[in-house]
Each structure stands twice: as structure tokens, then as C-alpha cells.
């Protein structure tokens, strides 16, 4: 009896983890970029609409992922090797890179952020398969993230001087 209760608890905890992870992803990688776009555009209504569409597409992507993940885990509890559609977390790499380009004058209009979010919205829902990164891919993402962090810290340090 204790074994059955433990298995049920583990299954529930795993399902809860999937849901809470998606909720935090929605806030961090869905709502925040949309708010950033709205703010950097000077509260432009078109940017607000694009931001709202971006959040809606992120919600759909995450909800669909949760359904697929629950179905997959009921059939095969092993690790998944691909993503269906572009993960919402990709914006964490693209948005800072675009912002640094904007700050350096390589992109001269805040409209570029609206285009990025619009394209990402469509990519969230596109039925494309993306292979999960292996060790080399994860190391590369960490290096890019650290480079972005150093760039932001360096920029903030220069503006204080």
C-alpha cells in the first residue's frame, strides 16, 4: 500500500513540476519580453498588441507542451530528445543580443524588437522539431549567457561613470 501511495505522490509531484515550470517560463520568457517591448517602444499601441499576441502564443506553446509531455510520460517516462516548436526560453538569448545591437547603434529603431517578438510568436506555434542541445550545446549557451551578462554589467558600469 505504501508503495502505491509513494508512486502516486511522485506522479503528482512530477505533474505539478511541469505546470509550475511552465508558469514561471510564461512570466520570465513571455510576459517580461512583452513588457520590455511596450516600454522601449514608448507605450506604442501597436507594440502593445504585438506584445499581447506574443504572450498569447507563449501561453499556447507552453500549454500544448504540457499536454504533450504528460502524454509522453504516461507512455515513456524517459528523457525527450526533441522540442516541438521553438521553446519560449530562446528569447532569453535573442532579446539581450538584439538589445546590445540596438545600444551600439547597429539597429536604429525600437521596431526591431516588435519584429523579433512577432517572429518568435510564430515560431512558438510552428510544427517544427528542434533537437535538444547536448553537452556542447549547453556549454555554448552558458558561454553566450555569460557574455551577455558581462556586456550588460560593463554597459551599466560605463553609464554610472
Low-confidence stretches: none
Helix content: over 70%
Shape: globular
Mean pLDDT: 86
- SSE series: HHEHHEH
Main sheet: strand order: 1-2
Strand percentage: under 5%
Structural class: mainly alpha
**What does the main sheet amount to?**
2 strands, antiparallel
**N-C termini distance:** 66 Å
Could you give the count of β-strands?
2
Radius of gyration: 19 Å
By DSSP (H or I, 4+ residues per run), the number of helices equals 5
Question: How would you describe the overall organization of this protein?
Answer:
- The chain is mainly alpha-helical and 161 residues long.
- Helices cover 77% and strands 4% of the residues.
- The protein has helices at residues 2-40, 45-75, 91-103, 111-125, 135-160; strands at 82-84, 129-131.
- Strands 1-2 form a two-stranded antiparallel ribbon.
- α2 runs parallel beside α4 (111-125), α3 packs antiparallel against α4 (111-125) and α3 runs parallel beside α5 (135-160).
- The longest helix is centred in the first third of the chain and has 39 residues, at 2-40.
- The mean pLDDT is 86.
Amino acid at each position: 500500500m505504501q508503495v502505491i501511495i509513494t508512486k502516486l505522490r511522485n506522479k503528482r509531484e512530477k505533474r505539478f513540476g511541469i505546470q509550475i515550470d511552465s508558469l514561471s517560463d510564461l512570466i520570465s520568457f513571455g510576459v517580461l519580453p512583452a513588457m520590455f517591448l511596450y516600454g522601449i517602444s514608448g507605450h506604442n499601441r501597436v507594440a502593445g498588441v504585438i506584445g499581447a499576441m506574443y504572450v498569447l502564443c507563449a501561453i499556447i506553446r507552453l500549454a500544448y507542451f504540457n499536454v504533450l509531455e504528460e502524454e509522453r510520460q504516461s507512455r515513456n517516462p524517459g528523457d525527450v530528445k526533441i522540442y516541438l516548436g521553438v521553446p519560449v526560453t530562446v528569447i532569453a538569448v535573442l532579446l539581450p543580443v538584439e538589445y546590445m545591437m540596438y545600444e551600439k547603434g547597429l539597429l536604429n529603431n525600437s521596431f526591431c524588437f516588435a519584429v523579433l517578438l512577432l517572429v518568435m510568436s510564430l515560431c512558438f506555434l510552428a510544427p517544427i522539431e528542434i533537437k535538444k542541445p547536448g553537452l556542447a550545446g549547453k556549454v555554448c549557451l552558458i558561454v553566450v549567457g555569460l557574455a551577455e551578462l558581462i556586456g550588460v554589467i560593463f554597459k551599466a558600469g560605463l553609464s554610472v561613470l
